[in-house]
Every structure is written in C-alpha cells, then in structure tokens.
Amino acid sequence: MLVAIDGTAGSGKSATAVRVAETAGFVLMDSGLMYRAVAWVCIEHGTEILEPELVALLASVPIAVHHRGLHMYVTVDGVDITDRLRALEVTGMASRVAQFAVVRRFLFAHQRGFGRRYADTPGLVAEGRDMGTVVFPHADLKFFFDAPVEVRAERRWEQLRELGIRTALPELRASLLHRDRADRQRDLAPLRRHPDAMVINTGQLTLEQQVELILEQIQACSRQRNPR
Ligand code: C5P
Questions:
Q1: Strands, E assignment, the chain
Q2: What is the bridge-based pairing of β-strands 71-76 and 63-68?
C-alpha cells in the first residue's frame, strides 16, 4: 500500500508519517530530506545555484538514500549526513534547489525507486510536497496537511529547540511563509492538493489524532482490498 502525505511546511507531516509508518510497519520516505541532502552538498561545495552547476554537482557527488529499519538516512561519499540536514541554512537552500528541474528529476528517480521496492511489501508512507500529485499519483491514500502559520511556527520552534537549534519565532514564521510561497508558485511540481486528497487541518488536532485518522483510512483501505 502506498500512502502519500503532502502539505505546507511545518504542518506536522513528518511527525505523523513517522508514527504511521512505525505503527503500520511501513517504510517511511521523507522526500524533504532528499532535497535537504542536495542543498547540503551545494553548501559544502560552494556551488552556484544555477542549472549547469547543479547538473555537474549531481553527476559528480555520490548522494545515496537508504533506510535503516523504518527510518531513512542519506549518505554523501559514504558518510551519513542525515543529522546535519535540519540546520536553518540547509532548510533555506533546500527550498531554492527544489525549483530546478535537474534536481527534481534526479530525486524523482530515487523516490520512484522507493515506491517500486516497498509499496507492495511492507507498504510505503511518502511525505513531501508533490507525493500525491506528481511522484505517486496512483497512491492508494492521499492526504493534504495544513494549519495556520502561527501554530506551525510555534511547533517548529519547539522541535528546533529540542534539536538544540535556537531561532526567533517571527523569523521562523516568515521563513515558513516564504517557503510555502516558493513551493506553491514554482512551475515544477508546485505544492497543491490533489483532488482525491483528504485535507487534514492539523491546527485543530493532536499528533495522536492525526496518526489515528490515517491509520483508520489504512485499515479501511486494507479491508476493501481483502474483503472476508
Ligand atoms: O519537508 P521539508 O521541510 O524537509 O522540505 C524541505 C524543502 O524541500 C521544502 O521547503 C520544499 O521546497 C522542498 N521539497 C519539495 N518537494 C518535496 C519535498 C520537499 O520541493 N516533495
């Protein structure tokens, strides 16, 4: 089974997707982490964010995406860089590199690979901005997460604080709005709700309720597939 979760920045997709994958025994694919990995490589190499430079970079730097148990991790040159990908500088750069066709094509191939390997067994939860619209339009279940920006900023501030990253709330709020705008307005795979996607307003729900809602849909979908 393939479950696609898309939505705005900081709307709770990742936290929900992790719990859903753990409970359902599915593999998790955090596509944002892939964009962050490319961003991190750009920063490390001081690459100019232009099409020819990005083409050369992706051809020469070995970026690989793996999963350990249910969790994803990314290596560059064989070194696990996953822990470095939440830094604010990487977040901003991820949103920039995500505008480029060459980057999206490169990651699309990795993402579809995850789908081929895990959608049937044990099942895949894919989260990002274009999972249900572009990468897996045939997903069995599609969700679109959103919440008021104030709620998203406060939750993200708290998450970053737990990771030891200090930031000011107004800046965080502005950065979320900026990323949403860039994601919504880009020509390629813009952030939008697939008509089949169930909208979940996470401003009014707890994490447990979000997880429960999706698990219920997974169970209903399994029952429909394997009626007794
Ligand atoms: O989800 P996360 O915040 O980790 O994603 C980082 C950035 O990567 C987003 O701001 C977005 O611009 C980009 N992204 C994307 N398509 C996806 C996942 C992430 O464009 N499927």
A1: 2-7, 27-30, 63-68, 71-76, 79-80, 124-128, 141-146, 198-201
A2: antiparallel
In this model, does residue 71 exceed pLDDT 90?
A: no
Going by CA atoms, what residue is nearest to atom 6 of ligand 1? 32
Taking the whole predicted model, whether its pTM rises above 0.85 is answered as yes
Q: What phi and psi, each to the nearest 5 degrees, are found at residue 16?
A: -70, -45
Q: Are 215 and 22 in contact (CB under 8 A)?
A: no
Q: Which residue has the tokens 């892939």?
A: 34
Order of all β-strands in the sheet with 71-76: 63-68, 71-76, 79-80
Nearest CA to ligand 1 atom 5: 32
Question: Ligand 1 atom closest to Cα of 6?
Answer: 21
Mean pLDDT of 153-182: 93
What's the pLDDT tens digit per position in 113-140? Answer: 999 999 999 999 999 999 999 999 999 9
Contact 154, 59 (CB under 8 A): no
pLDDT tens per residue, range 138-163? 999 999 999 999 999 999 999 889 98
For atom 19 of ligand 1, the residue with the nearest CA is 32
Say how far apart CA 223 and CA 63 lie, in whole Å: 39
pLDDT of residue 201: 97
Which of 216, 185, 189 lies closest to 200, judged by CA? Answer: 216
